[in-house]
Automatic annotation (TrEMBL):
Annotated InterPro entries: CMP_dCMP_dom (IPR002125), Cytidine_deaminase-like (IPR016193), DHFR-like_dom_sf (IPR024072), Eubact_RibD (IPR004794), NADAR (IPR012816), RibD_C (IPR011549), RibDG_C (IPR002734), Riboflavin_Biosynth_HTPR (IPR050765)
SUPFAM superfamilies documented for this protein: Cytidine deaminase-like, Dihydrofolate reductase-like, YbiA-like
Reactions accelerated catalytically: 2,5-diamino-6-hydroxy-4-(5-phosphoribosylamino)-pyrimidine + H2O = 2,5,6-triamino-4-hydroxypyrimidine + D-ribose 5-phosphate; 5-amino-6-(5-phospho-D-ribosylamino)uracil + H2O = 5,6-diaminouracil + D-ribose 5-phosphate; 5-amino-6-(5-phospho-D-ribitylamino)uracil + NADP(+) = 5-amino-6-(5-phospho-D-ribosylamino)uracil + NADPH + H(+)
Principal place of residence: plastid
Record flagged with keyword Plastid: yes
Lineage: Eukaryota, Viridiplantae, Streptophyta, Embryophyta, Tracheophyta
Pathway annotation: Cofactor biosynthesis; riboflavin biosynthesis; 5-amino-6-(D-ribitylamino)uracil from GTP: step 3/4
UniProt xrefs under CDD domains: NADAR (cd15457), Riboflavin_deaminase-reductase (cd01284)
Designated name of the protein: Riboflavin biosynthesis protein PYRR, chloroplastic
C-alpha cells in the first residue's frame, strides 16, 4: 500500500491540440478533452480514496468509488476499509442516495467480490447508475472481466481506461490506479509480495558510524514517515546483524490499527537470548533460518512464542515465495547492506525509499545501505524508475521503482472468459481445492469472507455477527467472569473487519491467556463447526458453491496455521477444510466418513 503523497501524480491538465482547425472540430476536440479531464479527475479521486484504509488494517486490494451526477458534481464516495467489509461501491451509492440515478460511477479497479457475492455490482445496478468508468481490470485472473461483463449485461455503459478511453490525461489517471494497487499487481505477476527497501543514510552514503552507532541518522519527521510505511505493510524484515547491533522494535507506533509482523532472516541463528523482537505481547515475530540451525535456540525462541520457519536454502527469493503463499501483499525491508544486496540480486525488491540526511560522518569502514552487488562499471548500475523527490523535515526522501509495475494490458482473458469461447476449458479441475484469502478463487470458504451470521447466545436469542471470524474469536472469552474478558467480547463483536476481530482476539489470548475460557481447546472445533454450518445454510450461493466441490479435497492453504490449515508441506491438520468437507457430506446426505 503506497501513500498517495508518494505517488507524485501530476495535476489534471487540459491539453489543447495545435494547428488550424475548423470551428466544429475545435468544439469537438474541446468537448472530448473536457470529458477526459473530468473522467481523469474522478478516477484519480477514486484512487486517492482507495488508499484510505492503509495503516489501519492488514494490506489488501484497494478499492475506491466516486459517484458523479450528469453535471459532473460528486454525489457520493466510498472505499473498501478491509476485506470482509462493505464494498466501496455500496458505500458510495449509499452516500449518493437518489443522486445515483443516471449518474456515472468511477472505480479505480474492477470490483473483485468474494465468489458468489455480487454486492458491488448489484449496488451500482439497483441504484440506477448509467455509466461506469474503470481504471483497470482486476489483476487476478479468476476475477478479471467478471464484473465488467456483469455490468454490461445489465445495460450499463462500461469504459475501461486504456481500452475504451485513451488520451494523455487518461494515461495519467490510469497510472494512479496502477500505483495504488502496485502490491496486488506485482504479487499477482511475480508470485512474491510487493517489497519496499527502506533505508536512511548520511550525505556521504553511510547508514552508521564505523563503530556501528546509527541512532539517529534521519530526523524525527522522517522516522514518523517510516512508522507510516510500516503500518502499510504486512511485515517488516531485518537480518540478524540488525537484531544484534540495533535491537529494534519494528513497531508502527501510530496509536492503534494495523501492526505489521516482524520477520528476522538469520542463517546461523547467532542471535541474542533477549531482544525487543522476542516480545510478542503486541505483535508476532517470525524467524526464518536454515534448516537445522541451532536447534536449542529454536526451542528457546518457541518458548517465547516466536514462530521459527526453516528453509533448505535461506535466500530472499525462497523466503518471499513462502510469504506469498502465506497471503502477504506488501513487505518493508529495513535490513543492513548485506541482506539488502542479496534481496536486490534476487529480484524481489520492487521499490526503494531512501532518506538522505544532511550529515557527513565519513569513515572508511562505515557501512553503506547496499552491500556487494558484483558490479564493476557504472553502466551496470540499477536505474530507478518514476523517481520522486520530497523534502521530509531536514531530510530528502528519494523514492523510485527498481522494476516497473507490470501492466495489465493487453488484457489476458480470464479462465471464465476462455470457458465462454471454449467450453472444454473448465475453471477449476483440480481434485484439491485450496483456499485462503477472500480474493482467492474459493475465497468464500474463508472465515474472513463478508457473510454475516446469526448465532444463539446463552439465553437463546440470536445475535448477529459480521463474520465467522468475529464469532469464533469472541467465543474464546464468552462466559469468563472478568470485566476485561467481557469488554474484549464486545470489542471483537464491534470490530469493523474480520482482520481486526482476529487481531483483538489473538492479541488478548497472547497477553492474558488466563482470560480464555478453560474448556476452549476442547470446544473450539465445535464452535467453528456451528458457525460454518450457519454460514453455509443461510446463503444459497455459498451452499451451492460448497456442494459443487463434491469429490474434491478442501484445504485451508495457510502455511503456518498447523491446526486449521494444511501447513507448508501438508503437515497441518487442516481442521477448517475437514469441517467444510463434513458439512458438505451432511448437506449431500452422505455419511461423514465419505469425505
Amino acid at each position: 500500500m503506497l501513500p498517495m503523497a508518494a505517488l507524485s501524480l501530476p495535476p489534471v491538465r487540459v491539453y489543447c491540440s495545435g494547428g488550424a482547425a475548423t470551428p466544429n472540430s475545435s468544439i469537438s476536440n474541446n468537448n472530448l478533452l473536457g470529458n477526459h479531464a473530468l473522467d481523469a479527475a474522478h478516477i484519480r479521486r477514486a484512487a486517492e480514496l482507495a488508499d484510505g484504509s492503509a495503516g489501519f488494517t492488514s494490506p489488501h486490494p484497494n478499492f475506491g468509488c466516486v459517484i458523479a451526477s450528469k453535471s459532473g458534481k460528486v454525489a457520493g464516495e466510498g472505499f473498501l476499509y478491509a476485506q470482509g467489509t462493505k464494498p466501496a461501491e455500496v458505500l458510495a451509492v449509499d452516500a449518493a442516495g437518489d443522486f445515483s440515478r443516471r449518474a456515472t460511477a468511477y472505480l479505480n479497479m474492477e470490483p473483485g467480490d468474494c465468489h458468489g457475492d455480487h454486492s458491488a455490482v448489484s449496488a451500482l445496478v439497483q441504484a440506477g447508475i448509467e455509466r461506469v468508468v474503470i481504471g483497470l481490470r482486476h489483476p487476478l485472473q479468476h476475477l478479471r472481466g467478471n464484473a465488467i461483463r456483469a455490468l454490461r449485461s445489465q445495460g450499463l455503459q462500461v469504459d475501461v481506461l486504456g481500452e475504451d478511453l485513451n488520451s494523455k490525461l487518461i494515461e495519467e489517471a490510469r497510472k494512479s490506479c496502477l500505483l495504488v494497487n502496485a502490491p496486488l499487481i506485482c504479487r499477482a505477476a511475480s508470485r512474491v509480495p510487493f517489497s519496499v527497501l527502506k533505508y536512511a543514510m548520511t550525505l556521504d552514503g553511510k547508514i552508521a558510524a564505523s563503530s556501528g552507532h546509527a541512532a539517529w541518522i534521519s530526523s524525527k519527521t522522517s522516522r514518523n514517515r517510516v512508522f507510516e510505511l510500516r503500518g502499510r505493510s504486512d511485515a517488516v524484515i531485518v537480518g540478524g546483524n540488525t537484531v544484534r547491533k540495533d535491537n529494534p522494535r519494528l513497531t508502527a507506533r501510530h496509536g492503534g490499527g494495523h501492526m505489521p509482523m516482524r520477520i528476522v532472516m538469520s542463517q546461523t541463528l547467532d542471535l541474542p537470548e533477549e531482544a525487543h523482537l522476542w516480545d510478542t505481547s503486541d505483535v508476532s515475530t517470525i524467524v526464518a533460518t536454515q534448516r537445522g540451525a541451532r536447534r536449542h535456540f529454536q526451542k528457546h525462541l518457541a518458548s517465547k512464542g516466536i514462530e521459527v520457519v526453516e528453509f533448505d536454502i535461506l535466500n530472499p527469493r525462497e523466503v518471499m515465495e513462502y510469504f506469498h503463499d502465506r497471503g502477504y501483499l506488501s513487505l518493508l525491508w529495513e535490513c543492513g547492506g548485506t541482506l539488502a544486496a542479496a534481496a536486490i540480486s534476487s529480484g524481489v525488491i520492487h521499490k526503494v525509499f531512501a532518506f538522505v540526511a544532511p550529515k557527513i560522518i565519513g569513515g572508511k569502514n562505515a557501512p553503506s545501505p547496499v552491500g556487494e552487488l558484483g558490479m564493476v562499471e557504472m553502466t551496470q548500475a540499477f536505474d530507478l524508475i518514476d523517481v520522486c523527490y520530497e523534502q521530509v523535515g531536514p531530510d530528502m526522501l528519494i523514492s523510485g521503482f527498481l522494476q516497473p509495475i507490470p501492466d495489465v494490458t493487453p488484457v489476458i482473458p480470464s479462465v471464465d472468459e476462455t470457458f465462454e469461447i471454449d467450453p472444454t476449458v473448465t475453471p477449476y479441475e483440480s481434485r484439491i481445492i485450496f483456499f485462503y484469502k477472500t480474493w482467492d478463487p474459493y475465497g468464500a470458504f474463508s472465515n474472513f469472507s463478508p457473510h454475516q451470521i446469526k448465532m444463539p447466545d446463552d439465553s437463546g436469542d440470536y445475535e448477529p455477527w459480521l463474520s465467522v471470524e468475529h464469532y469464533y474469536q469472541a467465543q474464546k472469552f464468552v462466559g469468563v467472569d472478568d470485566p476485561v474478558a467481557q469488554d474484549c467480547v464486545e470489542n471483537i463483536k464491534s470490530a469493523r473487519s474480520p482482520e481486526e476481530a482476529a487481531r483483538i482476539g489473538r492479541s488478548m489470548q497472547r497477553k492474558r491467556p488466563d482470560l480464555v475460557r478453560c474448556e476452549w481447546e476442547s470446544v473450539k472445533i465445535e464452535v467453528m463447526y456451528r458457525a460454518l454450518k450457519c454460514k453455509f445454510s443461510i446463503y444459497p450461493h455459498l451452499n451451492a458453491m460448497l456442494l459443487s466441490s463434491a469429490g474434491c479435497v478442501l484445504v485451508e492453504a495457510s502455511p503456518h496455521d498447523l491446526f486449521w490449515g494444511g501447513g507448508r508441506d501438508g503437515e497441518g491438520l487442516n481442521y477448517l477444510g475437514r469441517l467444510l468437507m463434513q458439512l458438505r457430506s451432511e448437506f449431500l446426505g452422505e455419511s461423514p466418513t465419505s469425505s
